[in-house]
Amino acid sequence: MTQYRQARAGVITPEMRRVAQREGVSAEFIRDEVAAGRLVIPANRLHLAGTAGEGVKLDPCGIGRAVTTKINANIGASPVSSCKEQELIKLNLAVQYGADAVMDLSTGGDLDATRRAILAHAAVPIGTVPIYSVVVGRDIADVTRDDLLAAIAAQADQGVDFMTIHAGLRRKHLPLVANRKLGIVSRGGSLLAKWMMLHEAENPLYEMFDEISAILREHDVTYSLGDGLRPGCLADASDEAQFAELATLGELVARAWAAGVQVMVEGPGHIPYDQIEMNMKRQQELCDGAPFYVLGPVVADVFPGYDHITSAIGATAAAFHGASFLCYVTPSEHLALPTPADVQAGCVAYKIAAHAADVARKLPGARKWDDRMAQARAAFDWKKQFELAFDGATARAIRSRDLAGAEDYCSMCGQAWCALRISKEVTGRLGG
Fold this sequence. Notes:
Shape: globular
Oligomer: single chain
Structural class: alpha/beta
CATH superfamily of the largest domain: Radical SAM ThiC family, central domain
Radius of gyration: 23 Å
Helix content: 40-55%
Number of domains: 2
CATH architecture of the largest domain: Alpha-Beta Barrel
Largest sheet: 8 strands, parallel, barrel
């Protein structure tokens, strides 16, 4: 039985207990959220058992509005860059800098070998987009329905925990993108659109949804329903094509639950800041509270090289208004395959976004970390500040650029201009 079916039956699984422990809530609370479909625990049974490769076991995490906001890091080799070893470096950096899950989006090299290696070294949930492995080395026109089902089954058998399945993009939606500036920017979405046009047929993933659900149910793989018509620029945001697909995704959420499969829904890429709240609430309504997994959203189109910042701004708002899972964007977005340094930068930016949103949502305990840092600053306790800092090594290195000793001030103000020191003098006299 899947986590969803067991929760519906009133069973508290070891995975639910682990998520409850990590979140500081009761196991009964987690079970109720899973049963309602508002929380997913991506946890392939093979990955849980440590049989998905060389024995690393999955440490389950929960994704949903009732718990802390999670972040995902995309890695993966391309046809022109990287290799299996480089992707393992990215995996380790992503986890070190806060990624709660990692997606292998490889489109080059030996995809099976790379996926196996990532699963073998990952204690976090691993996601994939199965259609990528189907089209490597062949034309999309030659892909059959059996090819798609075989790829999904093979990756489930490897231990993949969640899969992006672009089943919501219907043939009837294709004319709706004709007036877009950027058309279809999703790789999976564009491939399926081409297949439908060439074959003059419906999306095979939509037509085979029941068969796919049966495969995912076998190993408890979580659906991540892909947004093949997500907007790729501000001008295309919140248009008829995007929302037509979202309505279909709402239909598929209900079908996934009926099949006993966990499900979350992927969301928009480029959205003006003022449209984020509306987009989050619309998804929650159409998809009956299923967890929302958003890419960014990117809130400006003109900052290539800094899209980890423009998107983290949108991600904070998205997480505050309804998203549960944030897919990071790196500085190399729109430009190149992310390097290990880009992966680190993207994870840090999104860890900030997720934490800021959790504090704003007033999740129990979310601000304790910040309050402890404030106390350490007030006490000029630099050692404690570095211990509390998300990236203490970087904080320590920056401080030591100008001050190598144990001074209780920084080089911004020095001792005479230190506002905290002056404030202590003022409050000390007031107190006296």
